[in-house]
């Protein structure tokens, strides 16, 4: 048996087209285009690549993209001042401060300074709390993208046994909240979990977000399970490197019902959901 490939790239393209259509309708109705401000501190090459692809995706969907590049030596005070300026700039709808930040800037302090109504990453404690409480708010892009992939693949997920592997504030915890809100039965596993193979054996849905290359093995999976691989790990291959997920992909394809590839799975959905969140923020702000 060979599993279905979940084409995140194609599903992200349809989501981006939906956002673009909604943006066109908004501008036709006399609103300005939603505007996303991305802040990049330092010159980490991987971060620069992500920021560029966000800028391209914004342009294609008709959103305005602003980019603020600050030197790696930027003080936390200066970064907070930029966040304050973006918070009070009425033409900015969404603010994303690219992580990780250099050590002199505390991510927690910077995130907490962002206006929760403009927090398109959904990382502000107010939005995290709203999600945990089952209240509406801005939801982190990667788990939101995973949920969209699941509902596309399975229809509903009410009553399903879901296993989230990883307890980070940016993926694992919000993912578990989203699944609970959709009435799945949710288990959260992590590095100290005692028997991961036993937990995966009962899971209809596995979300792997551990950051360890190919750690989740095919034989651990329940036959027919839906596997969402959040991992993006750069590993040596030949002379260069390649990207692999947290799931041993070829093994999973032998057992699972449907699997996301890396690349081309969750990554493109993260960017599409960032556009969706920026539209959501613009719509909600215009209504207040
Ligand atoms: N405040 C903040 N918010 C973020 O959402 C955020 C961040 N900081 N810091 C960095 C991570 C990483 N991230 C990715 C988004 C898309 C892909 C993506 O589209 N990847 C493609 C290609 C990957 C490649 O070829 O390198 C794929 O998986 O198919 C990957 C990674 C968002 N991040």
Automatic annotation (TrEMBL):
InterPro entries in UniProt: Aminoacid_DH-like_N_sf, NAD(P)-bd_dom_sf, THF_DH/CycHdrlase, THF_DH/CycHdrlase_cat_dom, THF_DH/CycHdrlase_CS, THF_DH/CycHdrlase_NAD-bd_dom
SUPFAM superfamilies with a match to the protein in the record: Aminoacid dehydrogenase-like, N-terminal domain (SSF53223), NAD(P)-binding Rossmann-fold domains (SSF51735)
Hydrolase as UniProt keyword: yes
Keyword annotations: Amino-acid biosynthesis, Histidine biosynthesis, Hydrolase, Methionine biosynthesis, Multifunctional enzyme, NADP, One-carbon metabolism, Oxidoreductase, Purine biosynthesis
GO biological process: L-histidine biosynthetic process; methionine biosynthetic process; purine nucleotide biosynthetic process; tetrahydrofolate interconversion
Keyword Cytoplasm: no
Annotated residues for binding of NADP(+): 166-168, 232
The reaction(s) this protein catalyses: (6R)-5,10-methylene-5,6,7,8-tetrahydrofolate + NADP(+) = (6R)-5,10-methenyltetrahydrofolate + NADPH; (6R)-5,10-methenyltetrahydrofolate + H2O = (6R)-10-formyltetrahydrofolate + H(+)
Residue ranges occupied by any Tetrahydrofolate dehydrogenase/cyclohydrolase catalytic domain in the UniProt entry: 6-121
Pfam families: THF_DHG_CYH, THF_DHG_CYH_C
Enzyme Commission number(s): 1.5.1.5, 3.5.4.9
Gene3D superfamilies assigned to the protein according to its UniProt record, in alphabetical order: Leucine Dehydrogenase, chain A, domain 1, NAD(P)-binding Rossmann-like Domain
Cellular component GO terms held in the UniProt record: cytosol
GO molecular function, one term: methylenetetrahydrofolate dehydrogenase (NADP+) activity
Pathway: One-carbon metabolism; tetrahydrofolate interconversion
Annotated ranges, domain Tetrahydrofolate dehydrogenase/cyclohydrolase NAD(P)-binding: 140-284
Assembly notes: Homodimer.
PANTHER family linked to this entry: C-1-TETRAHYDROFOLATE SYNTHASE, CYTOPLASMIC (PTHR48099:SF5), C-1-TETRAHYDROFOLATE SYNTHASE, CYTOPLASMIC-RELATED (PTHR48099)
HAMAP family, A to Z: THF_DHG_CYH
Function: Catalyzes the oxidation of 5,10-methylenetetrahydrofolate to 5,10-methenyltetrahydrofolate and then the hydrolysis of 5,10-methenyltetrahydrofolate to 10-formyltetrahydrofolate.
The protein's name: Bifunctional protein FolD
Organism of provenance: Sandaracinobacteroides saxicola
